[in-house]
Known about the structure:
Elements: E1 6-7, H1 8-15, H2 19-27, E2 35-36, E3 42-44, H3 46-58, H4 65-77, H5 84-137
Antiparallel strand pairs: 1-3, 2-3
Helix pairs in contact: 4-5
Amino acid sequence: MGNELMQIGQVSTRIGLSLRTIRHWDEVGLVTPSARSAGGFRLYTESDVDRLAFIKRLKPLDFSLEQIKELLATVDGLQDELTPERLEDLLGRLAMFRAATDSRLDALRHQVDSLEFLSRDLKNLDISSRSGNASRSS
């Protein structure tokens, strides 16, 4: 799509977000449209769409809007020219997000393992109940 500007409806359809959600994320400062039309309509670039898609992926992972805002500010900050101190600060923040993400991933893996054990136990119970009833009916 190159440098083409897209209206909010196009963006909404493309990435599967409601107009209301996109507007809300704009209002709370997560994503700002790159331009406005003469009529005041929000216009988005490919980069804006990528940012919205990134936020969309974070939302179901239990990140609050404030945490998402902080992560985006960290990522955005890394694009600037930085003093060594500022770079160290941003990399420290990034490491905190990475640690939180890894911790959440470990918790989800444990949950999946537990669900797999439960599923296997229920399957075995089903099989043993069927075979027990079959032998009793004979």
